[in-house]
Structures are given as structure tokens and as C-alpha cells.
Amino acid sequence: MITTIQLTEETKELISSFGTKKDSYEDIIKRMYTFAVKEQLREFLLSSDKSIPIDEAIKKVKKQWPK
Can you say whether the dihedral through the CA atoms of 45, 50, 52, 54 is positive or negative? Predict the structure, then answer.
């Protein structure tokens, strides 16, 4: 099924700047989506929320599981 999405000329030009002459808008948007998903995952994994420095983590583990 094919749909139509209305865009301003400015947005259309911005999207086309991510592709080459051989790329369709569909190709460009799928590539942008894939990149956005990877970026969200990267930000989630590297988030400093609830994370601690590696040295602190090692000390904590050594306390919990002494040899």
C-alpha cells in the first residue's frame, strides 16, 4: 500500500540531502529511521542515569563477592 505524506519544499530538500540521485525518498527515510533507532539505543546504553564509574563498580563487586 502506498500513502502520500505532505511536506514543505524545505523539508523535502532537507530529506533529499541525506541521499544520492539513486536513492528514493523511501530509501532515505528508512535509512534515517534505522539511524535514529540506533542512536536512541546508544543513548540509552550510554546514559549516565543509574550508572557508576567502573572503579566504583569493581569495588562494589569485590565487597559483595570477596575471594
Answer: negative
Which amino acid does the sequence have at 29? I
Q: What is the Cβ-side half-sphere exposure of residue 8, based on CA atoms within 13 angstroms?
A: 3
Domain assignment of residue 3, yes or no: no
Predicted TM-score (pTM) of the model is 0.64
The count of structural domains within the chain is: 1
Please give the chain's pLDDT, 67 residues, in tens: 999 999 999 999 999 999 999 999 999 999 999 999 999 999 888 877 777 888 988 998 988 887 7
Under a CB-based contact definition with an 8 Å cutoff, are residues 29 and 15 in contact? yes
Residue 58 in grid coordinates? 569493581
For residue 19, is it within any domain? yes
Range of 38's domain?
A: 9-64
